[in-house]
Write a structure and sequence with these properties.
The chain has a domain of 138 residues: Thiol Ester Dehydrase, Chain A (Roll). It is built from three helices and seven strands; from the N terminus they run E-H-H-E-E-E-E-E-H-E.
Length: 201
């Protein structure tokens, strides 16, 4: 079960594989002092509002190192954006890395699905939002969706993740404290929202 990754401020994404190319005009290249760093989970800009929705998203600037040999943002960047959005959202609610460390558990992914809808190029900005697709009544299991939108508002990708809470000592899924479960219950819900079965203890 892959655990969520906490991204330190100023962290850089690993450059994508592929031949070395000169960046397009106006797009800073790798190592440039003008290279726009993608905001991390602990330093994302925002919250801009996506038209037609009342929940905030976060805006991320994509770098030349996020691009693959086809000249568009590589597939592995999208789940990274989703993870940064989730962890930034948790931190905004008062549940940062230190809180989870002290409690001895943390978020863990059980499943991840991505629909790639439109290309995004280097130097572009995208907005990532968050909504609940399904929750178990006690908060032990959850399914969230992120929609990645281009500056035009067009959807570039949808990321759906299913997860729970991993006890670091017992290495098993647990029910979270009520204060954390309550935050998930207050998350904006998708039109197709459904309830998950309770976590088996």
């Amino acid at each position: 079960m892959p655990s969520e990754s906490w991204v330190a401020p100023g962290a850089r994404a690993v450059p994508g594989a592929g031949p070395v190319r000169e960046p397009p005009e106006g797009v800073p290249g790798p190592g440039s002092s003008e290279e726009p760093l993608r905001p991390t989970a602990l330093g994302a800009r925002g919250p801009p509002l996506v038209e037609g929705r009342d929940d905030p998203g976060r805006t991320y600037a994509l770098r030349w190192s996020d691009v693959d040999a086809n000249g568009h943002v590589r597939h592995s960047v999208y789940p990274e954006l989703g993870a940064e959005m989730r962890l930034a959202w948790l931190k905004d609610q008062g549940f940062d890395w230190k809180w989870f460390e002290e409690k001895g558990f943390g978020p863990v992914l059980l499943r991840e699905e991505i629909d790639y809808l439109r290309e995004v190029g280097p130097g572009a900005e995208v907005t990532v939002d968050l909504e609940a697709l399904a929750l178990s009544p006690e908060g032990g299991r959850w399914r969230l969706r992120h929609t990645v939108r281009r500056a035009s508002g067009e959807e570039a990708a949808r990321i759906a993740v299913t997860g729970g809470w991993l006890d670091h000592a017992r290495r098993r899924l647990i029910v979270p404290p009520e204060e954390l479960a309550a935050v998930f219950r207050s998350t904006p819900r998708a039109a197709e929202y459904e309830e998950l079965p309770p976590l088996r203890r």
